[in-house]
Amino acid sequence: MKNFDIVIIGAGPGGSFAAKAAAENGYSACILEKEELGDKGRYKACGGALAWELVEEIGFPEEKISRVIESLELHHVDGETFSKKGKGGVVWRSTFDKYLTDMAVDAGALLKEKEPMINVEKQDGLYEISTDRDKYTAKYVIAADGVNSLTLKLLKWPPFAKDNLVLTITEERKTATSNIDTHLGSDAVHLFFGIKNLITVGYAWLFPKADTITVGWGNQINLVSNSREEFKKFTALSFVKQALKNSTLEIFKPHLIPVGLRSKLYEDNVFAVGDAGGIVDPISGKGIPYAMMSGQIAIESIKTCENRDKLDKLGITYGRSLDRRFLKVLVAKRFTRDKIYQDEESLKKFLRLWESHRSSEIVMKKLMD
Q: Which of 164, 214, 226, 346 is the most exposed place for a label (fewest CB within 10 A)?
């Protein structure tokens, strides 16, 4: 039996940042990851766009960025376009996640790769976590194992509501760099909208990397009738068809993204972080920075409550800390999302506002009203 203060399930951004914060605060921490990490390791279906502020904050090496971007191009299927300026980077998640996990290990956390968790249960006041190789105990558990969290399923937490889940399809298509530069621009990512003729509640995207285009489509899952046919409708658009001409399909993967919170984020020394808790921007689908922050906040909450001898306040402390940082805004965005997709006029109004405002500003200043 291996004994730790904190066991983290999942080595994504939320899990890695939780492990790093735990080690830096003097806790023994172990990350259990079912796959093998590495720059060429596990594949994650993700556009991989990062704000440049995040790149700088964590010191992510520029040579590991697949493409530096300067604008977000917004296309409505009727031909109207909008452009949102801002610097960012597009990365492979395998490379990015490995970088974050290395930070956690350097801080003192233990990483167990290729060791999937198969059971978790509470025994004599501690959690016993079983893998296909070993058993571990921990006082605290961080569920950072994604939207389909096995950790939370085994602990019988309620699932996500269907209208808080988006079904996505992602393709990775290899192509010449010159083709990307010609058709998509050397420094732009592209989003595509259209309630009636493309996606009811969601959008599609083309995210260029060095010599690959990440092609994605996502719609609220309870509104999907035939995902492959709906995806084909997107790839048949003339702009998209031209960009993907002479490209080679390398990966095809469906994936779920949460766009609303779980009904709870904490219970009995177990914290849900990142996608496992639905801590994702409901409008843009951005999840990486929120996963990282929620992982760190979970550890800060433990430290605060232990120092004050108020472990009965862990859930309240975690929730309030999330609220102060960003959660109130994400909850407000979930309500605004319904307004945005009520009709084409509302959608276009949002896209026009998004050109020159942050989405959080649009929501909190009620510019959609």
A: 226
